[in-house]
Amino acid sequence: MDARGLRAPATASVGFVTGGQLANFTCLAAARHSVLAGAGWDIAEQGFHGSPPLRFVVGSHRHGSIDRAARFLGIGRAGLTIVPTDSQGRMSPEALDQALVGAEGPLIVCLQAGEVHTGAFDDFAALIPLARRHGAWIHVDGAFGLWAAASPGLSHLTAGMADADSWATDAHKTLNVPYDCGMAIVRDPADSIAAFRTGGDYLIYSGLDPWDVTPELSRRARGVPAWAALRSLGRSGIADLIDRLHANAVAMAAGLRTVESVEVINDVDYTQVMFRLGSDEATRALGAAILVDGTAAMTGAEWEGRAALRCSMSSWATTPEDIVRTVEAIRGLVAAGSPAG
Ligand SMILES: Cc1ncc(COP(=O)(O)O)c(C=O)c1O
By CB atoms within 10 Å of each CB, which of 60, 269, 285, 296 scores lowest? Predict the structure, then answer.
């Protein structure tokens, strides 16, 4: 499989790992190696002791797996520069520009395709050239959002994203294969190899092997379900799947706006819908009631210090009728429970 469908270069390496967490880690390990090598430091040989400082620039609404990956990679919190984001969780180009003033030396900038609550995409076309000017490695966390690139109707969200250096995504989210199928895509396989290549005299080699581009050695053949889904759906089937998830989100938001006391919080550009009632107490009570009711499952969230409920459209099996049933169930629960306030 190659990465072209996601608008990454055909020559990129694709390492299959457990999920988005490990995909971010894997890409960032390649990034760490590359930016330190650019400063004349071989992290594989010399370790971190005495290395040039590495700056890791992230948005304030990055996913928690980014911090965890940084922690695994020895980039402590002190190495993080946190750039403010807008009301949807997007990094602002002005803020990135500001954060990069005087930045030189090893630098990684982490952008996002699909904020976990709002589904918002960073403005890659504006941000990537800014980061490039400072010689940064640019990583995109696109656990579920990278797939927007495969839909002609939604690919505008990912405009400019192909100019990054690495991309993390999950086949077990938008592509709907079973759990345990993340994908770490790195523009130049030499960077993955430098970070990960290993071997053993008992192994059979094919030139570029999974252990060359991921932290694992023995593991299951995750590429098989991903390949099967891609092969059976084809380019148009994947676009159709993504468009249906998006249409469900738009319909859900429209339905929720007709329910008294409900406020839809986010711009529904992709597959996420976040909403709340008038008070945190009412929002949390509704969340608990929805899970008991069982018509739909959604999780609670915190957005800008307030409680919210979060729907993530990710199942191929969800129909427009399911959305109507869910909205009506919520309408009934709000009316019946009404600590709605
Ligand atoms: C933006 C983003 N990045 C990373 C992850 C982590 O993915 P996983 O749970 O597959 O490790 C998620 C999970 O929802 C996510 O939404």
Answer: 60
- The C-alpha atoms of residue 49 and residue 40 are separated, in whole angstroms, by 14
Q: How many domains would you assign to the chain?
A: 2
CATH number of the domain encompassing residue 111: 3.40.640.10
Q: Would you say the CB of residue 141 lies under 6 angstroms from ligand 1?
A: yes
**What is the extent of the structural domain holding 256?**
235-337
**Between the CA of residue 76 and those of 141, 206, 280, what are the distances in Å?**
19, 36, 34
Segment 184-202 mean pLDDT? 96
**Same-domain check for residues 144 and 249:** no
pLDDT digits (tens, 9 = 90+) for 269-300: 999 999 999 999 999 999 999 999 999 999 89
Tens of pLDDT, residues 229-271: 999 999 999 999 999 999 999 999 999 999 999 999 999 999 9
| Cα 99 to ligand 1 centre (Å) | 25
Residue 1: predicted pLDDT: 39
Residue of minimum CA distance from atom 6 in ligand 1: 20
Residue 41 structure tokens: 């430091």
Q: What is the average pLDDT value for the chain, to the nearest integer?
A: 95
- CATH of residue 286's domain is 3.90.1150.10
Torsion angles phi and psi, residue 324, rounded to 5: -60, -45
CA of 252 to the centre of ligand 1 (A): 22
Beta strand 182-186 with 166-170: parallel, antiparallel or unpaired?
A: antiparallel
